[in-house]
Amino acid sequence: MKFSLPLVTSAVLIVAGMAAYSFAFDPPKDSEPAATSTKSSKANTLSKSKKMSDEPIYNKLTPQEQRVILHKDTDRPGNGGLTKNKADGIYICKRCNAPLYNSTHKFMSDCGWPSFDDEIENAVERKLETDGSGRIEIICKNCSGHLGHVFEGERLTTKNIRHCVNSSSMTFIAKGKDVPKVIKRESDSEKAGEVGDKPSASTSKANSPIKANDK
Ligand SMILES: [Zn+2]
Question: Could you tell me the residue range of the domain that residue 159 belongs to?
Fold first, then answer.
């Protein structure tokens, strides 16, 4: 069977015309969602980069140090790390360099972790554990990194207190050696106003004058 050429041509034209009509009155629906998703992925990128700039750049941590300092894990007990260190010097926060303990505070408790019966003033913050154990967690006051726990009434020293601190949370600086600069968060403005746990990116003396409550 054969169609004449004009017939075929007009049939093609009719079909094409119908397609054009339906396209004009029913535009493809996927054009809009595509545009929206491009927008939202842009927004994600923006909020991510903003978040990162709010964080001070703390010292780089090994996976084990991250587990302990950021996720409250505990070093294995033993005589490794700083547990048996008796040298003169200072113990600073591994994450932010804040001085935490003097070697004169250290004593040998045989508990398997470095032990101190005192702390450098204003360096360590105490928090009641929320796990119902009644234990008191100790954290670095500057960067809130986990240090360990504090126990009282054990009668191990005359001060009757034991800061049980993970070696992973501290760096020991021997007497006479340079102590690295503390990587500070804006704790001043934080104390005065908002109680957030987001440290911000200023380092040491770059703190601007306190503005909170200055309405
Ligand atoms: Zn710290």
Answer: 63-184
